[in-house]
Structure formats: structure tokens, C-alpha cells
Design a protein that fits this description.
With 293 residues, the chain is of the alpha/beta class. The protein folds into two domains: 11-236, Phosphoenolpyruvate-binding domains (TIM Barrel, Alpha-Beta Barrel); 240-292, no CATH class. It has helices spanning 20-25, 47-60, 80-90, 103-116, 131-135, 137-142, 156-163, 175-187, 203-216, 229-236, 240-254, 273-292, and strands spanning 11-16, 33-37, 67-71, 94-97, 123-128, 149-154, 191-194, 220-223, 263-266, 269-272. The chain has an eight-stranded parallel β-barrel with strand order 1-2-3-4-5-6-7-8, surrounded by five helices. The protein has a two-stranded antiparallel ribbon with strand order 9-10.
Amino acid sequence: MTQAAPRPRRSCLYMPGANVKALAKAREIGADALLFDLEDAVAPDAKGEARANVLAALAEGGYGARERIVRINALTTPWGDNDLEAMAGAKPDGLLAPKVNSADDVAAVDEAMTEAGFPKAAALWVMIETPLAILNIKEIAAASKRTRLSVFVMGTNDLAKDLHAKQTAQRTPFLYALSAGVTAARAYGLTAIDGVYNDIQNTDGFIEICRQGLALGFDGKTLIHPSQVEPCNAVFAPAPDEIAEARAVIEAFAAPENAGKGVLKVNGKMTELLHLEQARRTIAIADAIAARG
């Protein structure tokens, strides 16, 4: 199942389930999505406590328009089934499933969500973080046609570990995997979210990598610290000149004298119907961001 309309997912901030203060602070942070993490950010002996913390935070509410997604442990772990079943009653906006390697993995989580009582509207996000997931990327994306799958999240740290690759400044070792993820997501109408940036103190480096992710085609980025939210939102939001250009394209094609035309000149540029589609998406995203304040 894919999104009916574009939704801002510029900044997707991981919130460790074991940190009660962080879960409360998230109500004041301007991230588009909050990823309540029960997996990597939680030690094995704290899994149960983290699950209870997230349940309590979701029950209390107060997160406004922020999308609330819970990253559960994989169903193959001792905690995954309990995570999934517990969250069904908490009614988050969706789940993020880690370590997905195949379309069968997607189907298994989707089926478990149905059996646990999740509504069809509940989204399924999946981590693309293993070499096998990259090799099976087309089949994983195609599973969206018969499941709740709507979002890819790139897990570059796990990819680095499994590929024995280095985290270079320009992420050259990961460009194949990142592009494969975006390409498959676009082919099947999914949202594509870029991986995290680990050097919290390096704001300039972070902004540069955000711009690289935008250039690669990502809709947003996963974050590990609140300080990354504001610059990330700025990079992944349509710029004022982009919005103005998009409105000009829409107005030009809507003009009565241009009815039925497939190519126009707008602001001195040859503009086709494909540019009209892009313009409408830009405005939809810009309007959704403006509506959030």
C-alpha cells in the first residue's frame, strides 16, 4: 500500500525506548516523524522496560502532527513478537521492521500485524540494511502491492558492518546501495529515507550529507540527535525559488490558452507534463509543511 498523497518525512528522529526523558522531550522537537526505538538503541536486558516506556508515552500522547513509528525487534528475535503484539493496542501510526532481507520477510511482518489487530491504515516501514536486502531490493519493494509496506529506511551503519566498508565523507562505498534503494522505492511508489549521520558535532558535514541524500532522491533522513532536526528540515524542504517555479508551472498549464498542450515555455524554460507532475508534488509537500507551522 502506498501513500495517497505526499507527506513530509524530512526528519525521522530515533528516540531510544529506554530513555523516558527523551520520549517526553520528543513532544517539543520539530521532527516530521519520531521513531520509537526498541531495537538497536536498547540493550537486551532493557527490552521489556523500553517496551513499557514506549507504550506509556504513546498512551499519554501529545506528539501532535508528528508521525509516530515504533521500530520493533525482528520477529526472529526473542522480543519481536511481544513488541508487535504490545504495539497493536497502542495504535502508533506504523511499525519499522529491521533486518528485512526478502519479500517473504515483509509479508511475515504484515501478516503478524493483521493477526495482532493493526488496522489496514497502519503503515509498515522496513529497514534496508543488509547486503541480501540490496540484492533483493526489487522484490522487497514489489511486496508493497500486497502489504502495508510504504517506506524504505536505509540502514547505513549495518550495511557498513556487513560490507566491511568505511564511512567516508562522501559515502562512496554506499552509493550503489543508496541508489538501489531509491530506485526500487520510486518504481513502486514508496517513500525513501536516508540513513543516519554519526558525527553529531559536525554540523557542516551533516548538512553536506543531507544535500547529497536530497540529490540522490531521498525524501528525508533518519537522525540520532535533536540538534540534527532543524538543518535536516531546511535541506529537505522545497526552497522558496522551487516553490515559486512550481506555482508558475502549474499556473501556466492551467491557463485556458494552454489547454491540451504538452509542452510550454515557462520562465524561459521548455516545460513538459512531467514537470507539471513534479510541480504539483512540490506544492503538496510545501503546503503540508506550512500547515504544520
